[in-house]
Automatic annotation (TrEMBL):
Keywords: ATP-binding, DNA damage, DNA recombination, DNA repair, DNA-binding, Helicase, Hydrolase, Isomerase, Nucleotide-binding. Pfam families: DEAD, Helicase_C, RecG_dom3_C, RecG_wedge. This is ATP-dependent DNA helicase RecG. It catalyses: Couples ATP hydrolysis with the unwinding of duplex DNA by translocating in the 3'-5' direction; ATP + H2O = ADP + phosphate + H(+). It comes from Candidatus Woesebacteria bacterium GW2011_GWA1_39_12.
Length: 674
């Protein structure tokens, strides 16, 4: 067996188990070794039967004198085993696992680990882990710190432990160290083989943590290295066109705007104009809160392309957002006779003659368009597109090994440590302030008992102030899953709210509607024909209705703070005072403190940092964040380790002769673009 051997070569691992393992990212035996536990059960206390105390978690080792199924009058099955050692006997109890009477053989020696409690007035081990030790073999599932692994449906931790145990001793010597001794010594890291031994077979929890930290460092190091390799490779590409902008023309463009640019907008525009004058293409990420004015910054780049005689392309993830960009750019460039085209799955909307700016959805990739001299490609909410879609658009607008300048934008606030790791190959511009005139939004946390009062207040506001409201629900249809049943579903709420808010007009918007129906609903809302729009989080991107001043967010605890902030950013865009009402039925103190943070009107970046600390790595952006990477071992909140990995990655890139084994392991030619 080798590290590269497929898991299907293991005994009893056929196609069905292989598919389950694939869901956990396990295809080769090496992947199995790198499947790291997320916690441990402490079964280290091995006790004689006479020493066991009620309430203790212990391991006892003895002979199985009997095991049988007992049937209750309610039809449940209880499994009872009588276990004895030289000091006495006790029973072990399981529930509804009738197969155990065949698995556990009478007369043989077993190790049992679990909690001792009273059952039927007798001291018993309740639902213990067990394994046969008839031949005095080392224990895997009992009598030690037992690792609990990430699982998937019908693939238990016990099964995974067994498979790791089957290959560990054979393969651990195959894993060779690739970090220089200097880094290991400086950081007090164990070797890679020691780290894997520590996480799978620790003697102490501190030992397990040492192993996990080393493996987490490696995971972050590989991320950083890949980013730096991508950056180096990108800078070897030639830009199709270098663009120069006369300062006087740029100042006139700014004066023609109906508003004053913020300091961070001015700074970001200058960074972009510097980039597009280089002989290798720009590759920049523009981050900014909802409403911070990213589109005008991108428009300045398009203006630079236009006055140099070249085209620009804007790609947005939804038709709603593409339409919004189209309208904004048409308004901005109306003075300059710039021809802007809208390209969606429904067709192409264009002025006569050649287009200067193409705005559209992924239809830009598939439709035949006149991309003969594109200098700038802008990709909005880039994490919502796949790597291949982005690469396809760049390839379509480029010429061989020459590429247009690339500006990607996101309104998703990403903590700095995360963006430096995930998007380390991109130069970063940040809009960290809102334009003048944006009024702060008053945010309230609404418990269940105040729901009816809130509805009454909304009715009164719509009636007296002629405003409109959003009601956001996390799901489209009511869930059948037990744990999800309490979560508000848009379609069900829509029917309910039509009655609650009669005679006002209530509309429904969600991602499964056709593009035509979505546009009709949005158009009616924008024109004031719909008073209340019940929607899924599809509204978080690109809907701008100045008269919408109230937003209710149902089951607010289901969303990350960054996503709640983005949703809230859809209101507060006009002159009237705006309010966001967070409805939650959760009594959790953690939930309450998280949601209360929104009341302080922190920036999206502050909220993202806070959520990172409170909720951990996979939860920053709410129920699901498309395209955002999950770490398997490390944590995004571990800024110290991220910085340490970043420093090591830079050193490896600058002095590859000192890192030959690491460089060979990373295989730069296999790195996919961001």
């Amino acid at each position: 067996m080798e590290l590269s051997t497929p898991v299907t070569k293991l005994p009893l691992v056929g196609p069905t188990y292989a598919r389950r393992l694939e869901k956990l990212g396990i295809e080769k035996l090496e992947d199995l070794l790198y499947h790291i536990p997320h916690r441990y059960l402490d079964y280290r206390i091995v006790s004689t039967i006479e020493s066991v105390q009620i309430g203790e978690t212990v391991t006892i080792q003895g002979n199985v004198d009997s095991i049988k199924n007992i049937y209750t009058k309610f039809g449940k099955k209880i499994q009872l085993a009588e276990i004895s050692d030289v000091t006495g006997s006790m029973q072990s109890v399981w529930f509804n696992q009738p197969y155990l009477v065949k698995n556990i053989r009478k007369g043989e020696r077993y190790s049992f680990s679990g909690k001792a409690e009273l059952f039927d007035r007798k001291m018993s081990l309740m639902s213990p882990e067990y394994e046969n030790i008839e031949n005095n073999q080392n224990t895997v599932h009992t009598a030690r710190l037992v690792p609990i692994y990430p699982e998937t449906a019908r693939l238990s931790s016990k099964w995974i432990r067994g498979k790791i145990a089957a290959v560990f001793n054979t393969l651990i010597n195959e894993i060779k160290e690739y970090l220089p001794d200097e880094i290991l010594t400086k950081s007090n890291f164990p070797t890679i083989s020691e780290s894997l031994k520590y996480v799978h077979y620790p003697n102490e929890l501190e030992e397990a943590e040492r192993g996990r930290e080393r493996l987490a460092f490696d995971e972050l190091l590989f991320y950083q290295l890949k980013s730096l390799y991508r950056k180096n490779d990108w800078q070897k590409i030639k830009s199709i066109y270098s663009l120069k902008v006369d300062k006087k023309i740029l100042e006139e463009f700014k004066k023609g705007l109906s508003f004053t640019l913020t300091v961070s907008q001015e700074r970001s525009i200058q960074e972009i104009l510097t980039d597009i004058n280089k002989d290798y293409p720009m590759n920049r990420l523009l981050e900014g809160d909802v409403g911070s004015g990213k589109t005008i910054v991108a428009a300045a780049g398009s203006f630079a392309a236009f006055i140099n005689g070249f085209q620009s392309v804007f790609m947005a993830p939804t038709q709603i957002l593409a339409q919004q960009h189209f309208n904004t750019l048409k308004n901005i460039f109306d003075l300059y006779k710039v021809r802007v085209s809208l390209v969606t799955s429904e067709g192409i909307k264009a002025d006569l003659g050649k287009s200067d700016i193409f705005v559209g959805t992924h239809a830009l990739i598939h439709k035949k368009l006149d991309f003969d001299n594109v200098a700038l490609v802008v990709i909005d909410e880039q994490h919502r597109f796949g790597v291949e879609q982005r690469a396809h658009l760049v390839k379509k607008t480029g010429k061989g090994r020459r590429s247009p300048h690339i500006l990607t934008m996101t309104a998703t606030p990403i903590p700095r440590t995360v963006s430096l790791t995930v998007y380390g190959d991109l130069d970063l511009s940040t809009l960290d302030e809102l334009p003048e005139g944006r009024k702060p939004i008053t945010t309230w946390l609404v418990p269940p008992e105040k729901r009816e009062g809130a509805y009454g207040w909304i009715r009164e506001q719509i009636q007296s102030k002629k405003i409109q409201a959003f009601i956001i629900c996390p799901l489209i249809e009511e869930s059948q899953i037990e744990t999800m049943k309490q979560i508000k579903a848009a379609t069900v709420e829509y029917e309910k709210l039509k009655k609650v808010f009669r005679p006002f007009n209530v509309g429904l918007l969600h991602g499964r509607q056709s593009a035509k129906l979505k546009n009709e609903v949005l158009d009616a809302f924008k024109k004031g024909k719909v008073d209340i729009l019940v929607s899924t989080p599809v509204v978080e991107v690109g809907i701008d209705v100045a008269n919408a001043t109230i937003m209710i967010i149902e089951a607010a605890e289901r969303f990350g703070l960054a996503q709640l902030h983005q949703l809230r950013g859809r209101i507060g865009r006009g002159e009237k005072k705006s309010y966001c009402l967070l409805f939650t039925e959760s009594k959790s103190q953690n939930v309450q403190s998280r949601l209360n943070a929104l009341k302080e009107n922190k920036s999206g970046f502050e909220l993202a940092e806070l959520d990172l600390k409170l909720r951990g790595p996979g939860e920053m952006f709410g129920t699901k964040q498309h395209g955002f990477p999950e770490l398997r071992i490390a944590h995004w909140s571990d800024t110290r380790l991220i910085q340490k990995a970043r420093n090591a990655a830079k050193e490896a890139i600058e002095n590859p002769q000192n890192f030959p084994k690491l460089i060979k392991k990373i295989e730069p030619h296999d790195i996919a673009p961001n």
